[in-house]
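[Q] Does anyone have a clean structure-token version of this?
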Amino acid sequence: MMTFFKLFRKGMKWGTIISTLLFIAITLIQIYGRFFMTKAPSWTEEAARVAFIYAIAFAAGLAVRGTYYVDFGFLVEKFSTRTQNMIKFFIWTMTTVFVLIFTYHAIDFLLMGTIEKSPSLKYRMAISFSGIAIMGLSILVQLIYEKPKSNKPPKI
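[A] Here you go.
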């Protein structure tokens, strides 16, 4: 099971790197086109947007793993260890439920995109919408991996 999480993280890392580099390259093409060409390529705006969505989608799970999000540790530290564990378990549970609901609806959204086409690039919108599902899944996998170590909720 450990190798699944390791491979998953590596995939998310490379997805983030490649999407970010694509975003930068497409943006540079867009800048070049606006300054040095008579007519800037119309596809660059939409392609940059898709690359940015994918970069965020891949990076979201990594951010959860690295706890790069807003944390009120300075408040929680004032409580006893038992209360801290209860709060952490509650937050983990609520976050997991929220992300499960989010991912479920993201997959519905992705399926809606199979019948829509992109205005300028003419591809199925499911390609763009899949970034949202990837984000939900990447966060969910990391939440499962980072589950509080106790198998049962803290005693009250």
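[Q] Thanks! Anything notable?
[A] The chain has five helices and no strands.
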